Amino acid sequence: MRKHFLEDITFLIPVRIDSIIRLENLLLSIDNITNYYHVKIIVLEATKYNNGILEKLIKRKVSYLFYQDHDDIFHKTKYINILSQEASTKYIAIWDADVILNHTQIIDCYSNLLSGKFDLAYPYNGTFLDMSYIIRSYYMVNKKISILDNNKEKMNLLYQASGNIGAVGGAFIIDLNKFNEIGKMNEEFYGWGLEDGEFYYRSINNKLKIYRSNGPLYHLTHPRDLNGKFHSYFQTTKSKCELLKTIES
């Protein structure tokens, strides 16, 4: 199949590999992009030591960065901002390490951004679906998006931001200059939760023109550890306060 060239986008994927399932999910997510596009991808792994495994598995497809980090909490917003400094393209795609979508939704966003009518694009319609382990296993073997499309009713709906805007996490593509102008990701969000909603509302407050593609975003399920949920009452409260502060500003 003929691949499209996306010269003006760099995909940025921060990750902490804490299980084989997380590793498998990342590889599936990368393939979901590289099977259809010639595009720059940078993966940043942050963990206690570099065992070399991830770099060996992905080095032919992506650029790899390693940051030694002894903190049990994965400070995702910080690493997204570090990754953004590595990009030299007009647009960056902030991508979770465990998402799958119909590849046409990426080119749809890319075309609309290139038109100059939009600054920020979400490559899905706000429906973010968590597949079961059974569906995930079936997708791993076949790698066909039709498997996911045909089993949507068996999946659970993930994160909804405040109001009726639908989910805003998992993946977005943005003009790099605009990303910098509005302050990048908010590093006050330490660990999992609510940072994507805060970024969305901050984008609205700064009058960014936002586009949403049709079609859902699929989440490759995985066990939930400290970095898949709120890890303390203090963190929960602080994250909610940061979100409300932006919504009400």
TrEMBL record:
<dbReference type="GO" id="GO:0016740">
    <property type="term" value="F:transferase activity"/>
</dbReference>
<keyword id="KW-0808">Transferase</keyword>
<dbReference type="InterPro" id="IPR029044">
    <property type="entry name" value="Nucleotide-diphossugar_trans"/>
</dbReference>
<dbReference type="InterPro" id="IPR027791">
    <property type="entry name" value="Galactosyl_T_C"/>
</dbReference>
<feature type="domain" description="Galactosyltransferase C-terminal">
    <location>
        <begin position="167"/>
        <end position="222"/>
    </location>
</feature>
<protein>
    <recommendedName>
        <fullName>Galactosyltransferase C-terminal domain-containing protein</fullName>
    </recommendedName>
</protein>
<dbReference type="Pfam" id="PF02709">
    <property type="entry name" value="Glyco_transf_7C"/>
</dbReference>
